[in-house]
Amino acid sequence: MNSTLKIIISSxxxxxxxxxxxxxxxxxxxxxxxxxxxxxxxxxxxxxxxxEKSISRYGIKSIKNITRRNCKKIVDKIYxxxxxxxxxxxxxxxxxxxxxxxxxADDDDSIVPSDLPYACDSPYGSDIKSFIGPSRVVGRIPDxxxxxxxxxxxxxxxxxxxxxxxxxxxxxxYFAVSTDSWKISTHKSLVNIxxxxxxxxxxxxxxxxxxxxxxxxxxHFYNCHGSPADANFYGQKDNNYPIAQYxxxxxxxxxxxxxxxxxxxxxxxxxxPEFNDQQDLGIALTYLYNKAISFLGSSTIAYGPSxxxxxxxxxxxxxxxxxxxxxxxxxxxxxARQEFLKKSGPHLDPYELKTLAQFYxxxxxxxxxxxxxxxxxxxxxxxxxxxxxxxxxxxLKSSIMxxxxxxxxxxxxxxxxxxxxxxxxxxxxxxxxxxxxEYVVSTKGRKISALAKSMSGNEQISFRTFIKDxxxxxxxxxxxDVLVLKQSGxxxxxxxLYHRK
Length: 501
Fold this sequence. Notes:
It is a single chain. It is globular, with a radius of gyration of 23 Å. About 30% of the residues lie in helices and about 25% in strands. It has helices at about 10-20, 25-40, 50-55, 70-80, 150-160, 170, 185-195, 285-290, 310-325, 330-345, 350-360, 380-400, 420-430, 445-455, and strands spanning about 5-10, 40-50, 85-90, 100, 110-115, 140, 175-180, 200-205, 220-225, 230-235, 245, 260, 295-300, 305, 345-350, 360, 400-405, 435-440, 460-470, 480-490, 490-500. It folds into three domains: about 5-130, Rossmann fold (3-Layer(aba) Sandwich); about 165-390, 3-Layer(aba) Sandwich (Rossmann fold), CATH 3.40.50; about 405-500.
């Protein structure tokens, strides 16, 4: 049987600058991973993208400076030359940078740190519209930003190298925490994933300090609040925001091989512990330090409905479902992104676009936690699955229509609202006087524009957002509600109400 190609990329210069005399220990961890991958029928190569000796054997020139543009360009060259089934980025953003996507939504984030562009075959850029056709399996094994911790790296690599697949039923046992305010939405997510929501913990009254037995299940799911450089997730009921999970309360309590998905704002943010008041690690890195195998979360402010399903709800539950079905964690994320686009499209509002950009995978993307069931009717090779996923990515790139914000001077929005829209304002407790933005979808040259014109007399499809930005509830959490109206001309096509996580 032919082996499957996996590429690990990193920066030799940045690793050496950070770890100095301990760089040899880093290389040994990477070499041990390469050797262990052989047992999983993976042919793994380590490429230092800024080291000529390391990369020239593949007919690719090294880069002199580790910049976002250079990193994206060389990843594309690696794919065009070697076509790996898995791409692993080793190191946090101080080793290999995240791409920076200009935030398509109207909130406090100016940019969205993202690994999505690495998973797309479009050239370097910062506009999300270039990255709506993900087709590559990519994940990041992070070290700790700004800090040298060899024990952390030893644990993370040992967890990957010694990982053993388990049967599906082991991952159908779960630990889940939701704010009281989002419990209806979380209940739906859990039923969609596990078929029940019996183990859901609501915060409040449930708070951090869960027991070893509470945290024993192999699948963990969070729908809570988060904030930047913060080691806590927060619950909510009215104006009460207790600590739902604290990273320090996870230490020594996580079952080896746990998978995690977090909807929270900044749920997977990688930050230097020096930026935290108590110098605590964030929850994502704490999970990995305690032998979790995969963590999916957001780099920035995330959104979702309180009672329905959308945005962060969808991409996190799709990820968990695909992992439980037997996919590698990297393939599960790619399939989740593609499924999210298919479900949300063809027209994407700015918050859907941000959701696509902000969720990334921490962990080795080649690890498949669940033993895939053997089907009597046949099976696909890794390579055949990649062909199918690449084709789906191309289809999405040609069919998805992202929205783009227009300046007020370009907006021709009517100042008066229809009775239908006034009824929506009343239903969701908006006045129509909130901060507004308008986004248009380019449908020029597409058949759908003619259909839109036949319905409304206007071929243009647009989104109008109304943002109710209330006071800061705590010194870290802000309550924000966003009403999104979808229109063609003056005809209302639909609406959504999102809440900041």
